[in-house]
Amino acid sequence: xxxxxxxxxxxxxxxxxxxYSPGLMALGLGIAFIxxxxxxxxxxxxxxxxTSRPDSALLTPEVLAQVRARAQQxxxxxxxxxxAGAPGQVPPPVRQRTPD
Length: 100
Prior knowledge:
Number of strands: 0
Keywords: Membrane, Transmembrane, Transmembrane helix
Radius of gyration: 32 Å
Shape: elongated
Order of helices and strands: HHH
Number of helices: 3
Transmembrane segments: 26-46
Largest sheet: none
Region (Disordered): 70-100
């Protein structure tokens, strides 16, 4: 379908260039504009379709809810560890500068 729109726009431009009638020139330019407009969107749609994931790879709402719950639980655990001072973690040593 993309090739059709490109060919249609080229045919419109050819008509607009080769005619002596202002009416046919306007018609040719209109056809060329519509063809180019549709061609751009056809190329964009093909590009999006080529890089998109298949529907079978998308997560279901139930799985998404489980992932969110697990992330929230991990976040709460990390906040509790920070609040408790995270025993078992030793702060890095402080290096003192020596005068040169």
